[in-house]
Each structure stands twice: as C-alpha cells, then as structure tokens.
Amino acid sequence: MNRRTFIRSFSALGLLAGAGPLIPAWARPLSGIPVRPPALSPTRRTGRLVEYDLTIDHMRLEFGGRMGKAVTINGTVPGPLLRFTEGDEAVLRVHNRLDEDTSIHWHGILLPNGMDGVPGVNFPGIKARSTFEYHYPIKQYGTYWYHSHSAFQEQLGHYGPLVIDPAGGDPYAFDREYVVVLSDWTFENPSDVLDNLKNRPNYYNFQRQTLTGLLKGEDMNLRDRLSWDRMRMDATDISDVTGATYTYLMNGQAPDPGWFGQFQPGERILVRFINASAGTFYDVRIPGLPLTIVQASGQHVEPVTVDEFRIGIAETFDVIVEPKDKAYTVFAESMDRSGYARGTLAPRESMTAPVPGLRERPLLSMMDMGMQMTGATAAMQGHDMAGHNMDDQEAMPGTPEPIPHGANNHGPANAMAPDVTRSRLHEPGIGLGNDGRRVLVYTDLRALRAETIRAPDREIELHLTGNMERYMWSIDGKTYAEEPLIPMTLGEQLRLTMVNDTMMSHPMHLHGMWMKLENGQGERIPRVHTVVVKPAERVSLLIDVDALGPWAFHCHVLYHMELGMFRVALVQPAGATIPAEFNSR
Ligand SMILES: [Cu+2]
Predict the structure, then answer these.
(1) Confidence category of residue 500, pLDDT binned at 50, 70, 90
(2) Residue 430 — pLDDT band, cuts 50, 70, 90?
C-alpha cells in the first residue's frame, strides 16, 4: 500500500483523525462499480422530495502536509456532492455550528428569491448555532456548486458540488463520471490577505518586473513604460493573490500527490470541472487527451474538442475524455503560472504520469491596457505585447472594431480608462493560444437547443472599474455602499453591456436569472451564470428579466466582491417604486 492509498483508505474510515486529508466520498477513486461519484445520501426521499442535512463547522484539516483551520461542510473540504434530478423538490437543512453567521448560495440555480442565500440581500443569514431550511423546486439540469456568501468562509473551504441530472438524460453517453472541484487554500487568515492587498496591492506578486529593469528598457519601450506608469500597474499583475500564499487544490488535495481518479481502459469518462476558488483562474489540460466540452455553465453545448480550457472563478465545464490504458495528469495551472493543482487519472493507483512544468509567466499586453492599436499590434493580439513597437500597422481582418472609451468619468476609484475597448470573446486569454494547443474560446460555445431571441427593450452599460494601486474595486467607479442598485423591470428583455476598464479579468456573476452571452451564435446563444470579462473588453449579454426580487450581481473574485464590485439587481413589476431600505444603504 503506497502512501496515497494508505492515507486515503484510513482517513476515509476516520482512523487518521488529524493526520491525513479527509476526502469527501465523491472524490475517492472508484474502481469497477459504481461508476458515478457517490452523492450524499438524502436524509429522506419522498417521491420527488429530496431532503439533505448539511452541517457547517470549523475543523483542522491537512493541506499539503500542514494543518489549517477550515470551514467544513459535513466534515470535509469540499463539502458533499448534492445530486438531484430535474423536477425534484429540494429541501436543504443547513445547521450552523460556527460561532458566526453563515449562509449557502446555490450558484447558478434558478429559485425563489428568498432561497438564494445572500445575507443582507435576500435573506437574513443563518445565525450562529441555528438551522435554516432551504426549499425550492429544481427546474434545470447541469453541473453547479454551492458556497458561503458570508465573510471569507468560501476561502476557508465552505463550498461543494451540486449536480442535477436532466429529466430526459444527457444527450451524450459516458461510462464513468468524476467531479473535479478546483479551489485555493491559504494558511493566512483571509482578512489578513485582504489587508496585505490593501496595504500593498502587489504584495503576493513576487514575479514583478523591477523598476530598474524597466528603466533600463530591458522589457519595454518608452511608450510602454509611460503607459504602465499611468495605469499604476505592472505587466505581471495577472492575479492579486498568487502561489506565494495559495496552495492550489484539486478536490481538496494539494498537488503532491494530488487527487486520484481510477478508470477502466476503454471507458468514456465525463469530468465535471468546477472552479470554486476565491481568487484563482485555472488553465486545465490533460496531456495526451483531447477534451470534448459538452456543458458550460451547466448547460449543454454542441461538443467542441480542445487541448486546454481556461476556467474562471465560479465557472463550470463538463468534459468527455477517452483515456487509453495508461496514467494521465490532470493539470490545472494557475493563470499567473505561480503554481498548479494536480490530479491523476489512471487504471491503477500505483500509476503516475509526468507532471508538466509551469509555463513562462505571461505579461499583460497593450490590448489588455486598451491601447489604441493599429495593424501588427492588433494582429498579435493574445500574445505578449510588452516591448513590441506599435507603429505603422494595419488592422487584422476579423478583429472586432475597437470602441473609443471617451473620458474617464468614474472618479478616483478608477485609475484610468482604456483608450479603446472591444469584444475579446474569440481570444483564449492572456498566456494561452500561442503554443500550438487548441484552447476553448467563448465564441466556440453554441447552445445545443435554440433560444427565442427577443430584441432588447432596454440596454444598460456598466463599467468594471478599479484602482490597483489603492486596491479599490467598483462598478462605474462606485462601490456597493455608494451605489447599491441596478433596477430591473419584470418581463423586460435587457441587454447588459459590461466594459472592463481595468487590467484584471473579472468573472461576473448574476444570481437568479440566466445571462445569454452574445457571442455571434445567433439563436444558439449560450446561457451563462458567470462570464469572464477580460481586460479592456466589452461584452454584451441578454437577460430575460423573469424573477422578482433583489438578486446579487458581482465579481466572483472574493476580494473584489468584498471591496464593493457588487450590486443588487432589483427586479420589480413595472411602475413599482424602490423600497426605502435599498435607497438608504
Ligand atoms: Cu473582479
């Protein structure tokens, strides 16, 4: 019995309390039968009524050989797998054993407003040592997740997977299924992480280019240097929190030895990837295996086969792979290349596969800065721009037209506005797509079923704003405290355009309603609950405003949300006045 097997089997029995990682049942290797990861057993099942009990507590758990104090759900990080079938009625009793408030938000689930679980927005929170019962009908299918919306509990392990089987079955066959939850762990108290970022926004960026290096002109020409200075940013500011403090987790396990999933040669395997991180975008690949994407944001898409995909915080992608009789590494590299989460898929536990090296750290580009560009610079979009001359070039055919931003009227909360913004849905994202690998892009996503497209009744434009030097994050230059509401009218068709004035990617999430991503696929427009808006990008989405109540709309980088990149989308019947409590916040 090797160390991995030993720790796994003994900790599963609770025999190694405090000595090994406690692995949720669904994340243990499944040999032979069953071929589905075991979900939490319902407390009771009566017809379509499925009842679960979830207990939130503090526990000391091991991450990469070191003990940390986690917030657990039923004793593990991540929490148990919750499984439903479309058409079920969910009853979820959440028992809070903490000495502080908690909550569970069901990410991507369409439900009555009072069951959405955002304290101070649509429910009071779950008080210390009390129980709250969620009750809602399951009206959709797909891979989702759930997490705390209270303080920094999500960073401490308060998240888990939620899978809903379609009433009519999935439109593709598979022999075995795994859930892969990616997340990030820090032994620092998350509020200290935030303090560090506020005191010195590049606190965790040990990859920073030195000022002397810049002045010597090693990496950039003069115009670039001036631009960076203007932005108060650095070309290596890809993530706020990096591998300097994060341990990157796959199914709750640090990379050595990492998560293990077993299969039998010849099987088709469905892997449900969920990014439950507080601050990490991952680039996922399984060297040697093409990845066929069949679901995005929990919704079926026309299969598209790639070598790699970027998964933003809170996104989900379902992937089908067909491994041969050998071991494979499931490699999830952090976007800033400061570390990785890792797992192994193999027919036997004794097998391992080579672990790829981290790729070179990417640099932000002129495109990311929203610089006005012509020709060759535009033609090189998606590649590192730092140091490239931007003169005398011609526009590349097919490049979306840049749109001038105009004056930066977002006040001091916005460091600067880009000169131009444009659609970047066809781009794989920073650091990807220039090494021959086929990378998933948003324009690839094509819904399996056609949608009825209605012309928008109303259009709104929101700018994602920030000041990296002061670590301020906001929307239209205002924090949630300063400007809490986005009013919406029940029944309207809304076009929401987001313009990212910052140089960081923001995974924007709307609760309670689908957003449909206008990616050029016509009536096959894909539904998303979360969309990554790249630096200097302009993205538009259509929303059927069909659910009454106050719904959270926010950036899913936990620290950006905490600092105010957050709004309440308040859906009311036409003609209703805004309740006083929302004006006086
Ligand atoms: Cu953000």
Answers:
(1) very high
(2) very high
The pair of three-digit structure tokens given for residue 307, joined into one six-digit string: 């070598």
pLDDT in tens, 295-318: 999 999 999 999 999 999 999 999
**How many angstroms separate the alpha carbon of residue 244 from the centre of ligand 1?**
20
Ligand 1 centroid distance, CA of 313 (Å): 10
Residue 268 falls within a domain, yes or no? no
Domain stop point among 113, 140, 169:
169
pLDDT, tens digit (0-9, with 9 covering 90-100), for 130-181: 999 999 999 999 999 999 999 999 999 999 999 999 999 999 999 999 999 9
**Ligand 1 center–CA 26 separation, angstroms:** 31
Interval between CA 505 and ligand 1 midpoint (Å): 6
**Residues spanned by the domain of 69:** 41-169
Tell me 582's DSSP state.
H
Expressed in angstroms and rounded, the spacing between residue 523 Cα and the centre of ligand 1 is 29
Residue ending a domain, choose from 137, 169, 201:
169
Check which CATH number belongs to the domain holding 464 and give it: 2.60.40.420
Domain count, the chain: 2
User: Nearest-CA neighbor of 563 among 486, 470, 474?
Assistant: 474
Residue 528 structure tokens: 């998303």
Q: Report if residue 226 sits inside a domain.
A: no
d(CA 70, CA 57): 8
Distance from residue 151's CA to the centre of ligand 1 (Å): 16
For residue 565, how far is its CA from the centre of ligand 1 (angstroms)?
7
Tell me whether residue 239 is in a domain. no
Instruction: Give the predicted TM-score (pTM) of the model.
Output: 0.90
Residue 64 within a domain = yes
| Spatial distance between the Cα atoms of 374 and 394, rounded to a whole number of angstroms | 5
Report how far ligand 1's centroid is from the alpha carbon of 507 (Å). Answer: 6
For 56, 80, 95, 115, the CA distances from 92, given in Å and listed in that order, are: 13, 13, 10, 10
